[in-house]
Specification:
With 471 residues, the chain is α/β, with parallel strands linked by helices. The protein folds into 2 domains: 180 residues, Alpha-Beta Complex (Aspartate Aminotransferase, domain 1), CATH 3.90.1150.10; 254 residues, Type I PLP-dependent aspartate aminotransferase-like (Major domain) (Aspartate Aminotransferase, domain 2), CATH 3.40.640. A hairpin with a 3-residue loop joins β15 and β16. α4 packs antiparallel against α12 and α10 runs parallel beside α11. The chain contains 15 helices and 16 strands. This is 4-aminobutyrate aminotransferase. It comes from Lachancea kluyveri (Yeast).
Length: 471
């Protein structure tokens, strides 16, 4: 019996779509009502989560889709997972939900145990955690930690703040409000809040109309595929981008205190950074005293064939901060240097300091991933699926350009010639029962749950074989 069969004995054996359009009439009616009180314009359809099971999501019209998008990569174990339902029904969860504690001031007696379960799954080299509310919040909290750490190195960790600092910060001016920058990369996505918006550079719609910090965007490598046939060109591309990074650090008009990077840029087009590039960034950040932040919000928790994607790069020494959210159903950052804990209380603080209810689920997810060997399964299934897609690429090269994600679990993507063709493919895949997402202007990205198996890959590939010739 497979993992999926043990979790989901009643999972559908195949997709089924009865409506001629998506969203169907019932979804359209629901969305019209929802639209009166909530912005429903981005909705694909209205989901029926009670009927959704395993790797299949069901909509209000009772269409059943094989889900290769998984709530924008945030469902780790499939829908209605029995182990997570058990965790949700625990007395510990009831206390967390009914009496949600202000963790900074009134931590519960459960908190040490909850955090210890999360830290079991921390990236290599990290042994401390700070919790947040979302991926964007995790990144903004990491920026705060980086700025305080950077200034403490200049001032001295235990040195008291000067009267001038205390007075000027109330006017948002120097020296209490220092001019510091976070470097990110073109095509990056790190969130939609103010600081996270300033490091996001994927689509204009993410950040139009709100003020931004004067922070630099370096160039993320653009590789030629297949990788094994283009090693020399891709190494030259890495070196070109590394030079830009170092030039920006040394020339930017305000000090660059931190650098943030996704090991695979997801929203920006599923662009993969090489082991060489990620390690060289570590060398550059150490050389210039820049805090190195890895954003694992979308890439974390097993989907790339490692629990944390940047572990493929074996970066030494360990990066400073690793942010997480999505598949962990919780959010925050891991770290190891105690000097990232601010020198005074209330500096990294808010009412809830995260959410213990979500941390409980995160711990349960991590334990299931380990106990059921789901990272290894994802690596195996990803290799299987990639091989099938390579065969389709040989048959339809026009529609499978820059196929990427080999040996990266199910974190697979490819490009179509135009945005219209990409959108047409996604639409027709849904009409044939496969819920798949896009990214950037013309990319298709696969983000199934870790319970996705070879039988699901076969269904998806058979659907592609039907749909692609009709483009």
């Amino acid at each position: 019996m497979t993992v999926c069969e043990s979790y989901y004995p009643s999972e559908p054996t195949k997709p089924s779509v009865a409506t001629s359009s998506i969203p169907g009439p019932k979804s359209q009616k629901e969305l019209a009502e929802l639209g009166k009180v909530f912005d429903a314009r981005p909705a694909y359809f209205v989901a029926d989560y009670e009927k959704s099971v395993g790797n299949y999501i069901v909509d209000a019209d009772e269409n059943v889709y094989l889900d290769l998008y998984a709530q924008i990569s945030s469902i780790a174990l499939g829908y209605n997972n029995p182990s997570l339902i058990k965790a949700a029904q625990s007395p510990e969860m009831i206390r967390a939900l009914v009496d949600r504690p202000a963790l900074g001031n009134f931590p519960s007696k459960d908190l040490t145990g909850i955090l210890s379960k999360l830290l079991k799954f921390a990236p290599k080299g990290q042994d401390k955690i700070w919790s947040g509310l979302s991926g964007a919040d995790a990144n903004e909290l990491a920026f705060k930690a980086a700025f305080m750490y950077y200034r403490s190195k200049q001032r001295g960790y235990s040195t008291e703040f000067s009267a001038e600092e205390n007075e000027s910060v109330m006017e948002n001016s120097l020296p209490g409000s220092p001019h510091l920058a976070v470097m990110s990369f073109k095509r990056a996505f790190h969130g939609r809040l103010f600081a996270s918006g300033s490091v996001t550079c994927s689509k204009p719609i993410h950040k139009l109309d709100f003020p931004a910090f004067n922070w630099p965007h370096a160039e993320y490598p653009s590789y030629q595929f297949p990788l094994e046939a283009n090693e020399e060109a891709n190494r030259a591309e890495d070196d070109r981008c590394l030079k830009i990074v170092e030039d920006l650090i040394t020339s930017w008009p305000i000090p660059v205190a931190a650098l943030i990077i996704e090991p695979i840029q997801s929203e920006g087009g599923d662009n993969h950074a090489s082991k060489y590039f990620l390690q060289k960034l570590r060398d550059v950040t150490l050389k210039h005293g820049v805090v190195y932040i890895i954003d694992e919000v979308q890439t974390g928790v097993g989907a790339t064939g490692k629990f944390w994607c940047h572990e493929w790069a074996e970066i030494t020494p360990a990066v400073d901060l690793v942010t997480f959210s999505k598949k962990f159903q919780s959010a925050g950052y891991f770290f190891h240097d105690p000097e990232f804990i601010p020198n005074k209380a209330y500096r990294q603080f808010n009412t809830w300091c995260g959410d213990p209810a979500r941390m409980i689920i995160a711990g349960a997810i991590g334990q299931e991933v380990v106990d059921k060997s789901l990272v290894e399964q994802c690596a195996r299934v990803g290799d299987y699926l990639f091989g099938k897609l390579e065969a389709l690429q040989s048959q339809y090269p026009k529609y499978f350009q820059n196929l990427r994600g080999k040996k990266r679990g199910t974190f697979i993507a490819w490009d179509l010639p135009t945005t219209d063709l990409r959108d047409s493919l996604l639409k027709n895949l849904k009409l044939n029962g496969c819920n798949v997402g896009g990214c950037a202007e013309k990319s298709v990205r696969l983000r199934p749950a870790l319970t996705f198996e070879e039988k699901h890959a076969d269904i998806f590939v058979d659907t592609l074989k039907k749909v692609v010739p009709q483009l």
